[in-house]
């Protein structure tokens, strides 16, 4: 849009002779002019905000804009002209430094009963009270149907219309900033969803040699068209940062982003975002979902790396699960009970690989820099890829979750919570889609079973059932486990204190593991200060008795204070109990 009553339209369609803009309700078509770069361009009068339109390529069917800013009627409907103006009041916002991140992952549609950007604002205060410093929104790009996890997005520039308008997303971000919360958005650049994906009708966006299990792979390394496809992705990344004041991007399944060219599209995007960030004087965070440790990901571009700030390292999550549920696997990688968690704590990771090098189990001699790793004990995949979408406390016990949370919050790595984890939500987070095509619906159901054959899929809701979405709506904090909530709040407060004091860092850490008692110990020593985290994780709380520990200093936190008073002393630890001690040495 360039004025109140005029809009400039631009669409890349290099192999199309004629592209028309068809204004809905006006019975008016405007032919665009094709330039030498394959872009069709035109300035349309009497066309302002809220005007709806389609494109027609060479007289073909009506199609939404490939860079639509809003799809009010969904992915098959008309695009809408959006006025980008917004009365931002966050000019003093400085974002959150990487080492201060405590991330809260959420699905906007399931976070509140109404599932909108505006209703999410109403729950921000409780997140501030909890102590998290950033919210991470699962993908917002519009996807088919009334509900979707977001990884089937096809309108990359259009916030999901089920959640509200672009202006309402800005209201959410603006409100978050005023409450001291950074906003990170999950973006998907390795594929597009299977329904409503019309990009290929405009231009050669998709690769003939690469593919993904989830949908078409972008044509990043095509010698003729790759540069424009790359430009499209980079423009989208910067769009979220610029248009919506987003503080960071979490790039989905980065290892599945297929590109044989040099530099890799992810490195080129990282460079472009860095240059934009410097020019805008904004501290933008880039987080990769690499799943396992990638030694190139956090390495600066100037040193031959990818230049990201942080990366997901799911080794921690799966290693915890291997301890509390041995023999079960929620990953295609096999994790060993006990020793893999010990290695994650001492070295930072278990498996390693890059975007072009296969993943393999490693036994590193030295500790990696875990300040740039994102750890969790639950996330959307962990819960949703289980047939019944059970949460950790339901698969184990509240005590086991508390003990694991102590390790999560008090390692140098970036902790991430999944919505409702902090009060042990009783609600599942099922995988849900709302495709209209019957064949796609069947493919989703079968695909889940093929991707995770280790599970029994005979029970539970199908992802195509409306109840899968409705039952995943998060309840209120008041309806949750208040003891769990207070435990998480205390751990987060302690993390912030130790971080501010310079205590909680890779430079100060020592870890120990006792296999006989399943005891994990983290110790930080800095000058005269000593802080110790004891966490005992077991599969059965009733068959094992207390063990003795030799702490230094005063007891700060106890995950089972009521049990300790009745049965064990300060220097003893029950199964699935955590205790934290501190000594100033004075």
From TrEMBL:
Could you name the domain of life of the organism this protein comes from? Bacteria
One short Pfam name that applies is Alpha-amylase
- EC number assigned by the record: 3.2.1.141
Keyword check for S-adenosyl-L-methionine: no
What pathway is this protein said to act in by its record? Glycan biosynthesis; trehalose biosynthesis
Keyword flag Cytoplasm: yes
Enzymatic reactions: hydrolysis of (1->4)-alpha-D-glucosidic linkage in 4-alpha-D-[(1->4)-alpha-D-glucanosyl]n trehalose to yield trehalose and (1->4)-alpha-D-glucan
- Keywords, alphabetical: Carbohydrate metabolism, Cytoplasm, Glycosidase, Hydrolase
TM helices/strands, residue ranges: none
Glycosyl hydrolase family 13 catalytic domain location is 105-448
Q: Where's it found, cell-wise?
A: Cytoplasm
Instruction: Describe the family membership recorded for this protein in Swiss-Prot or TrEMBL.
Output: Belongs to the glycosyl hydrolase 13 family.
Q: Which protein, by its recorded name, is this? A: Malto-oligosyltrehalose trehalohydrolase
């Amino acid at each position: 849009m360039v004025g109140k009553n005029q809009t400039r339209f631009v669409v890349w369609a290099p192999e199309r002779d004629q592209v028309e803009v068809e204004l809905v309700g006006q019975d008016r078509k405007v032919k665009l002019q094709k330039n030498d770069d394959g872009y069709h361009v035109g300035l349309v009068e009497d066309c302002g905000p809220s005007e709806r339109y389609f494109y027609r390529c060479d007289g073909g069917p009506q199609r939404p804009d490939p860079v639509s800013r809003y799809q009010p009627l969904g992915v098959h409907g008309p695009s809408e002209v959006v006025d980008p103006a917004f009365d931002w009041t966050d000019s003093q916002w400085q974002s959150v430094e990487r080492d201060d991140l405590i991330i809260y992952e959420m699905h906007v549609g399931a976070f509140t009963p109404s599932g909108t950007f505006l209703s999410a604002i109403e729950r921000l205060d409780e997140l501030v009270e909890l102590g998290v410093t950033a919210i991470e929104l699962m993908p917002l790009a519009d996807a088919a149907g009334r509900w979707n996890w977001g990884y089937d997005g096809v309108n990359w520039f259009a916030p999901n219309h089920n959640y509200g308008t672009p202006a309402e997303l800005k209201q959410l971000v603006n409100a978050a900033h005023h409450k001291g919360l950074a906003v990170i958005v999950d973006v998907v650049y390795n594929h597009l969803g299977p329904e409503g994906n019309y990009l290929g009708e405009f231009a050669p966006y998709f690769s003939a040699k690469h593919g993904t299990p989830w949908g078409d792979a972008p044509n990043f390394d095509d010698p003729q068209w790759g540069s424009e496809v790359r430009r499209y992705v980079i423009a989208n990344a910067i769009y979220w940062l610029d248009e919506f004041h987003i503080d960071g991007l979490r790039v989905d399944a980065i290892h599945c982003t297929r590109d044989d060219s040099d530099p890799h599209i992810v490195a080129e995007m990282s460079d472009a975002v860095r240059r934009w960030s410097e020019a805008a004087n904004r501290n933008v965070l880039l987080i990769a979902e690499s799943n396992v440790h990638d030694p190139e990901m956090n390495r600066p571009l100037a040193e031959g790396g990818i230049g990201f700030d942080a990366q997901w390292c799911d080794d921690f999550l799966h290693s915890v699960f291997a301890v509390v549920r041995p023999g079960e696997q929620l990953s295609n990688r096999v994790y060993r009970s006990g020793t893999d968690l010990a290695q994650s704590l001492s070295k930072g990771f278990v498996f390693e690989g890059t975007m072009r090098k296969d993943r393999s189990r490693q036994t590193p001699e030295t500790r990696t820099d875990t300040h740039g790793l994102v750890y969790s004990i639950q996330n959307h995949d962990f819960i949703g890829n289980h047939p019944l979408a059970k949460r950790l406390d339901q698969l184990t016990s509240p005590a086991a979750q508390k003990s694991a949370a102590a390790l999560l919050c008090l390692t140098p790595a970036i902790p991430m919570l999944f919505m409702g984890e902090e009060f042990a939500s009783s609600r599942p987070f099922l995988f849900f889609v709302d495709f209209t095509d019957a064949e796609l619906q069947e493919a989703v159901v079968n695909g889940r079973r093929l991707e995770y054959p280790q599970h029994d899929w005979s029970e539970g809701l199908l992802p195509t059932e409306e109840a899968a979405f409705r039952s995943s709506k998060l309840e209120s904090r008041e309806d949750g486990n208040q003891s769990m909530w207070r435990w998480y709040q205390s751990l987060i407060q302690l993390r912030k204190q130790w971080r501010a004091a310079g205590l909680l860092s890779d430079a100060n850490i020592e870890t120990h593991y006792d296999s006989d008692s399943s005891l994990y110990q983290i110790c930080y020593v800095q000058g005269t200060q000593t802080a110790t985290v004891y966490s005992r994780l077991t599969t059965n709380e009733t068959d094992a008795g207390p063990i003795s520990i030799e702490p230094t200093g005063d007891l700060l936190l106890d995950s089972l204070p009521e049990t300790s008073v009745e049965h064990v002393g300060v220097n003893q630890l029950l199964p699935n109990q955590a205790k934290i001690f501190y000594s100033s040495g004075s």
